[in-house]
Amino acid sequence: MQPKILAGQRVLVTGAGRGIGAAIARRCGEVGAHIAVNYRSQRDRAQRVVRWVQDAGSEAMLAPGDVTRSSDVGNVVSNVVQNWGGIEAVVCNAGAPVIRQRAEDVGWETLQQKVLGELKGAWLMVAETFPYLKESGGAVVFVTSGLAERPRTGFLAHGVAKAALNSMVRYLAFEWGSYGIRVNAVAPGLVLTDASKEVIGRQMDAPDVPLGRLATAEEVADAVVYLLSPQASGLTGVILPIAGGGHLGSGGFLRQ
Ligand SMILES: NC(=O)c1ccc[n+]([C@@H]2O[C@H](COP(=O)([O-])OP(=O)(O)OC[C@H]3O[C@@H](n4cnc5c(N)ncnc54)[C@H](OP(=O)(O)O)[C@@H]3O)[C@@H](O)[C@H]2O)c1
Fold first, then answer.
1. Average pLDDT across the chain, whole number
2. Which terminus of the chain is less hemmed in, N or C, by CB atoms within 10 Å?
3. Is there an atom of ligand 1 within 6 Å of 4 CB?
């Protein structure tokens, strides 16, 4: 039995139907949080995550909606507040699709779409939940990426977009600290999910990761639990790499 370190927290996780978001929802539920499971289209998978959380003894609800659509975000947040009366934490995990292209092949439209997609999804959600986070002295965690700080061939648009999110984390932490709102990020290295399999294909080894293996979605989720917990009450504006030490790597991985 795990200590219920998030007991009573009402947590909204975006993109929680599968992959890293689903692991975050499950882990937060296992340690006592109520979880609103946001997803865009795959209802069955999101419903499965709701069941995991309920089986762990916590409350969970479906919160469908596209985080890049203002009206959807408004509906998601008002449904959660109608059900549970407030929100203590938001995890902005849903990202814009990753396209792997060499820098010279990245068109302006692609770069613009990627950067705006990442920023919009995160921004609309934090702006909409701000009154509730202010009321509860809550916390925000963004899921960014190690690629923001450590270039790898083919990921210019993704890295630039996630770097903008890292900057948003620091600015929000700086300004919203006075309301008692903490804003942090996890920056995973490569993690096996539907999205990464699509982009990387078979190349899933980790030659320049000091721990000798990729981090798992569950390890990313454990870091999010920590950042949301009272144990991290002194932390804000932090970007935490979850990459088995891959953020220290030489650059051999994915260089081709
Ligand atoms: N996997 C990695 O190696 C890795 C590494 C570093 C950072 N990250 C970041 O971690 C996050 C999750 O990645 P992942 O690999 O777990 O992705 P994934 O397996 O593709 O899962 C994406 C989830 O997000 C939902 N989603 C996508 N766009 C959405 C939107 N506009 N509005 C609402 N929900 C949306 C999907 O909903 P549906 O199921 O309904 O489509 C799905 O539940 C992303 O921000 C990604 O950039 C991933």
1. 94
2. N
3. no
Is 58 strand, coil or helix?
A: coil
**Quick one: which atom of ligand 1 is closest to the CA of 195?**
20
Fold classification of 10-245 is Rossmann fold (3.40.50)
Give residues with Cβ within 8 angstroms of 214, minimum separation 6: 189, 190, 191, 192, 204, 206, 243, 244, 246
> 15 C-alpha vs ligand 1 centroid, how far in Å?
5
| pLDDT tens track for 86-131 | 999 999 999 999 989 999 999 999 999 999 999 999 999 999 999 9
Work out the pLDDT band at 256, boundaries 50, 70, 90.
very low
Q: What is the pLDDT of residue 140?
A: 99
* Distance from residue 145's CA to the centre of ligand 1 (Å): 12
Give me the residue spans of the domains in the chain: 10-245
pLDDT attached to residue 82:
98
Kindly state the average pLDDT of the residues 146-173: 97
Q: Return all residues near 108 (Cβ < 8 A) that are at least 6 apart.
A: none
Beta pairing class for 239-242 and 89-92: unpaired
Residues paired with residue 13 on neighbouring β-strands, in sequence order: 37, 91
Give the separation between CA 232 and CA 74, rounded to whole angstroms.
Answer: 29
Residue whose CA is closest, atom 42 of ligand 1? 15
**Atom 36 in ligand 1: which residue has the minimum CA distance?**
15
- Pocket lining: 88 vs ligand 1, CB cutoff 6 Å: no
* SS3 label, residue 189: coil
pLDDT tens, residue by residue, 27-68: 999 999 999 999 999 999 999 999 999 999 999 999 999 999
> What is the separation, in whole angstroms, between the first and last Cα of the chain?
45
